[in-house]
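Case study 2.
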Amino acid sequence: MKIVIITAMPEESRAIMRRARLRETSLLSGRKRYRIQISGHEIVLVEAGMGMLNAGWAASALATESPDLMISAGFGGAVLPGLVVGDVVMAERILHLSGAELEEVAVGFYGRNAAADSLSFRRGVCISCDQILNKGDLALRLPAGVVNPVVEMESAAVARIAASHSIPFLALRAISDPWDEELDFSIDEFCDEDMRIRPAKVLATILRRPAIIPQVIRLARNSHVAASGLARAMERLLGHI
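Prediction:
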């Protein structure tokens, strides 16, 4: 099977590539692009950068290769109690929060129910936001019946592009921050204008606001746990389909 995987950050890409055979590394308009093999599948993995614009751009560029499956994969934050750091959620719904409007995204999912059941993934809802939000505020906007909501910034864009090209889609998110923790900084403070994390920006932010150091350390530790969960989940998923 020919598969496209779109991530936002290096930590997410490295997690997936732990179980991969690297075939080729290149750049796609400045974004890292990897050709890899996992469980016999030919995979193109692109590290697009954070946000809907980056994810949508990458999905549009890769849709021209006519993949059999497009996957949005990475980390996300729990919005309600029930999910803990390291849990992996397979989306059964995709919502997009733009301004005050919460919209359901029409998605052509690839066998999500069978995959979630057979692999014991948590089923849930990916909520893609145009900007980083307070999770407590987001929880108040959720419609009734939303199960295991995960906030992130990319899946809705990838899902829309996949649907417009009739490409089956999946979204897989590993929890990197719990529902009851709000950061005193925004991840975009660590990013360049293309929403890609830059070490120099991280250092500058920490030097300017040293009080956030404990939270940065905790986020790094949680991201490591989430990366391990994502690596295992992706290997199991690709071995199953």
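Helices lie at 10-17, 52-63, 112-119, 135-141, 155-164, 199-208, 213-240.
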